[in-house]
Write a structure and sequence with these properties.
Largest interface: A-B, 37 and 38 residues
Oligomer: heterodimer
Strand order of the largest sheet of chain A: 1-3-2
CATH class of one domain in chain B: Alpha Beta
Radius of gyration of chain B: 16 Å
CATH architecture of the largest domain in chain A: Orthogonal Bundle
Number of strands of chain A: 3
Number of domains of chain A: 2
Helix content of chain A: 55-70%
Shape of chain A: elongated
Shape of chain B: globular
Structural class of chain B: alpha+beta
CATH topology of the largest domain in chain A: Arc Repressor Mutant, subunit A
Largest sheet of chain B: 8 strands, antiparallel
Strand content of chain A: 5-15%
Order of helices and strands of chain B: EEHHEEEEEEHH
Helix content of chain B: 25-40%
Strand content of chain B: 35-45%
Distance between the termini of chain A: 56 Å
């Protein structure tokens, strides 16, 4: 699903997903290599069920998806999230373009009355 | 054309902007050094920034808020980590509530500003680093007129959150 403007509820889920160190760690691992839920669980001092819950939170925030492979569930980072990052960077670029224009105006103002 | 080049890395969440100005390096440095000049360009025109503190030394902090058309406020803080006048400035930029209290759960973005002399003109390069897409989203909202109202509301919601649980 492509959502141009995330809703308040989307943002709440995202902030919640990022608020936990284990979940951030799971995301980082899954970005760099392919992990099943049970492989991920082996990395943490907590139960399989607890890790599964963390993955579920990431899933609800649309940050990862689970893909069934045999008896394993492979955790995949959503490429859509990266696309979203690109779109946000485009918008932030616009913020800086506007700032640069305002800076240029201030600098030009200082030149008034000065010989060229 | 003021901005001459930009580059983005969505995986690392960084943005690099290069702009050129028709002024000497020392003059361009002032738009960062002087809070009265800084507040004229940091916020969008309808959400002007007010810097109520601006301790422009390495390790020094700055506090600001932006005021909307109906008096709404969105706050932020800076921490200057590197200041090498007049060519290099590094700072962290985070969110704050209306009283200026930093909202640490939102984390901080980092910016590196370099000024280069082009024989009387100046090239300013700004590299921005973000910790998460959410943080980037918030910074975008706070930099834009149309996003400000929403950003102010979101920060309020986040601040209110711990009280609910």
């Amino acid at each position: 699903m492509v959502v141009d403007k995330p809703s308040e509820a989307d943002l709440d889920r995202l902030f919640q997903a990022f608020a936990d160190r284990t979940r951030r760690d799971i995301l980082t691992r899954a970005l760099n290599a392919e992990y099943s839920v049970s492989e991920l669980a082996a990395h943490y001092a907590m139960s399989f069920a607890a890790v599964q819950k963390h993955v579920a939170v990431l899933e609800r925030a649309s940050l990862v998806t689970k893909e069934k492979r045999g008896r394993e569930q492979i955790v995949r980072v959503q490429v859509e999230a990266l696309r979203r990052a690109r779109r946000l960077l485009d918008e932030y670029e616009k913020v800086w373009r506007d700032r640069a224009d305002r800076i240029a105006d201030i600098l030009t103002e200082g030149m008034k009355g000065q010989p060229k | 054309m003021t901005v001459i080049n930009t580059s983005k890395d969505p995986a690392a969440l960084t943005l690099t902007i290069e702009a050129e100005f028709d002024a000497e390096v020392e003059r361009v440095w002032q738009i960062w050094e002087d809070p009265r000049q800084l507040e004229r360009w940091w916020g969008p025109p309808t959400w002007p920034a007010t810097f109520y503190s601006h301790d422009f030394v390495p390790g020094g902090k700055a506090g600001y808020y932006m005021t909307g058309p109906e008096g709404e406020k969105a706050g932020g803080w800076w921490k200057f980590t590197v200041i090498q006048a007049p060519t290099r400035l590094e700072f962290e930029d985070g969110f704050a509530d209306e009283e200026g209290k930093p909202q640490d759960e939102m984390g901080a973005t980092r910016a590196i500003v370099s000024l280069e002399d082009l024989g009387g003109r100046t090239r300013m390069t700004i590299v921005s680093f973000f910790e998460s897409a959410e943080q980037l989203e918030q910074m975008v909202a706070m930099g834009m007129e149309e996003g400000m109202r929403e950003a102010a509301g979101q920060i309020d919601a986040i601040i209110a959150e711990p009280a609910r649980t």
